[in-house]
Amino acid sequence: MKDLLKIGGKSVNNRLFIGTGKFSSYDVMKRALEEAGADVVTVALRRVDSSSKTDNILDYIPKECILVPNTSGARNADEAVRIARLSRAAGCGDWVKIEVIQDNKYLLPDNLETLKATEILAKEGFVVLPYMSPDLSMAKRLVDAGAAAVMPLGSPIGSNRGIKTKELVEILISEIKIPVIVDAGLGSPSNACECMEMGCSAVLVNTAIAIAENPVGMAKAFSDAVKAGRLAYGAGIPQSTRHANPSSPLTGFLRQRK
Amino acid sequence: MSFYDLYSQYKDVDTAFHLISSKDVEKAFQAQKPSIDHFLSLLSPAAYSYLEEMAARAREITLRYFGKTIQLYTPLYLSNYCDNACAYCGFNAANSIERRKLSINEVEEEARAIARTGLKHILILTGESREMSPVSYIKECVRILKKYFTSISVEIYALTEAEYGDLTAEGVDGLAIYQEVYDEDLYKKMHPAGPKSDYKFRLDSPERGARAGMRNVNIGVLLGLDDWRREAFWLGLHTDYLQDLFPGVELSVSLPRVRPHAGSFTPAHEVDDRAMVQIITALRIFSPRLGISMSTRERSDFRENLIAIGLTRMSAGSSTRVGGHAIGLNEETAPAQFQIQDTRSVGEIKAMLEAKGYQPVFKDWMRI
Question: Do B289 and A21 touch (CB under 8 A)?
């Protein structure tokens, strides 16, 4: 049986979601998406130029992919909502990744405004994927507001520092009943694999693929790492220990009482 | 509080620069989050011999935050009437040049020609004449330009907060305004007459613009008027101050060097290519997300070499005269503000970026 991710009424095979910013060209981006076999692709609506015959990014995204426009550039809920509606009106579908960022220094999300936008857009029938700082109460509120998944950050966007928020994301994974998708900060395939081993439903990667020396090769590496991590999670990873554990020093006496 | 207070606090930086040792420079390198003192170290004479290392660091940071992309834009000069007497500028009121202002129809003609190149970001410029290019005229032009461009920035005289608000309400999203020179005494010498002679009003204008809703704020110094280390330091300090005050604003800088123009001004300070590289790398390490813009006033080979190090935005297909894109005005009928060096078309710049493995970004904003 195929291990599919159910989200927004669709079944997704590849749990590596890919972002489309920062690539050296749309051609390279397209080949990276193809090589990874990406099923879900995010794109900043602010960069979409539908009027261009040669430079419309949407023409370089494989047709079978689920397109997830994001609200990059939004500084509050109101702007995020407006961008999402523009996106739908432009024919980009019902999926939207909410990014509300008030902080240009670290690019950390504004959870409160993100929640407000999620409430409004979910009611309007959008499949809402909110990018958030990993906070359990907020994640629960996002679930109640109708989010299709939550997307906690691993570390700040573009930092390539890996899953620095591990403890908090693990709490989300065990407490939140909708998919938890780590977004941002994953710098290498091993980081992505680690997230999947932890039980994340998917990960989203952009910078680490886009700025690699060979983005196409790196896209494939991430895709394979995500598959491996998911398989490992499904197979049940035995607990690790630093030393051999030959006897039962504390409870051995129970066996000697005969 | 105004940036003036911070400037006053750091006014005497010259001695500090010479106290920096190579150890300090190395410390500045290793800092996770470089401080203002680290920034000073990176601009110091001691850092001069670390340029290659600084460039490598700057490149790595630029790649992570901006990727392999360069945002393109072009300037559109609306009017060259000016009441100021800036010593270094071709539009100086004292220069007897032909004065010209585009009619609204001409603005549309210019806009159409620029839009055909694929550009979506435009920077509109005027001289400072509240009589000939009032805010109402600029708004009228913006109404036309909105049909052709998704992002409109203004590089005009300093306005009040309410006037900036009028422009953002009309659809302007970016403000470019350069202090030209931060040293207060020198500023007064360079700007002896006209409204621009008000140092503090100029200094606080980026703040007023940000408060009025400008999403992008671009500040700069005109290099060559003063010692470059101190001016670059105050510029970095100013961006840091603004980013703290307005975390949601995208900040960028321009680093123009004085170029030949009508009039007879010779810059007092040399700013060579090495100095430019030190400024750019120091700014990038100090402020990873800062946009760095470089115009066609620089040589094409120099601009190309800086792409890999830290540039994020470049102008293309530029003309620095009123009516220089479509309506065919020339040096006689509308003199250029200054001479440009990189005269390549948008198509040529696009091809150059692609050949270097960079994505030319034509559109990175839309009105929402």
Answer: no
Q: Does residue B286 belong to the interface with chain A, where contact is any CB pair within 8 Å?
A: no
C-beta of residue A114 within 8 angstroms of C-beta of residue A74? no
Number of folded domains that form chain A: 1
What is the C-alpha separation between A134 and A111, in angstroms, rounded? 9
Q: Do A86 and B368 touch (CB under 8 A)?
A: yes
Distances from the Cα of A39 to the Cα of A15, A17, A142, A233, angstroms: 8, 7, 24, 21
Does the beta carbon of B248 lie under 8 angstroms from any beta carbon of chain A? Answer: yes
**Residue A220 catalytic?**
no
pTM of the model: 0.91
Do B145 and B95 touch, CB atoms closer than 8 A?
A: no
- Do the chains contact at B63 and A25, CB–CB below 8 Å? no
Q: What DSSP assignment string belongs to B95-146?
A: S-----B--HHHHHHHHHHHHHTT--EEEEEE-S-TTTS-HHHHHHHHHHHT
Rounded to two decimals, the ipTM of the complex is: 0.86
Domain ranges of chain B: 54-361
How far away is chain B from the Cα of A208, in angstroms, using its nearest Cα? 8
* B221 strand-pairing partners: B180
CA-based nearest residue in chain B for residue A86: B368
Domain B54-361 in CATH 3.20.20.70 = yes
**From the list B215, B358, B363, which residue is nearest A24 (CB)?**
B358
- Any CB–CB contact under 8 A between B118 and chain A? yes
Nearest to B39 by CA among B251, B285, B231, B254: B285
Instruction: Return the DSSP state at B334.
Output: S
> Active-site residue among A30, A53, A63, A97?
A97
What is the maximum alpha-carbon separation in chain A? 85
Nearest CA in chain A to B67: A22
In single-letter form, the type of residue at position B353 comes to: L
**Per-residue confidence of chain B (368 residues) as pLDDT tens digits?**
799 999 999 999 999 999 999 999 999 988 888 999 999 999 999 998 899 999 999 999 999 999 999 999 999 999 988 888 888 888 888 888 888 899 999 999 999 999 999 999 999 999 889 989 999 999 999 999 999 999 999 999 999 999 999 999 999 999 999 999 999 999 999 998 889 999 999 999 999 999 999 999 999 999 999 999 999 999 999 999 999 999 999 999 999 998 766 666 788 888 999 999 999 999 999 999 999 999 898 889 999 999 999 999 999 888 888 888 887 777 777 778 877 888 888 999 999 999 999 999 999 998 88
Cβ contacts of A47 on chain B, cutoff 8 Å? 361, 363-364
Domain extent, residue A191, equals 5-256
Strands (E), chain A: 5-7, 10-12, 16-19, 40-44, 66-70, 95-98, 127-132, 151-152, 181-183, 202-205
Yes or no, beta carbons of B248 and A82 under 8 Å apart: no
Location of structure tokens 């999620």: A118
Query: What CATH number has the domain bearing residue A243?
Result: 3.20.20.70
CB contact under 8 Å between A22 and B363, yes or no, is no
For the four alpha carbons of A163, A164, A169 and A170, in that order, the dihedral sign comes to positive
Among candidate residues A162, A164, A234, A240, the one with its CA nearest the CA of residue A196: A234
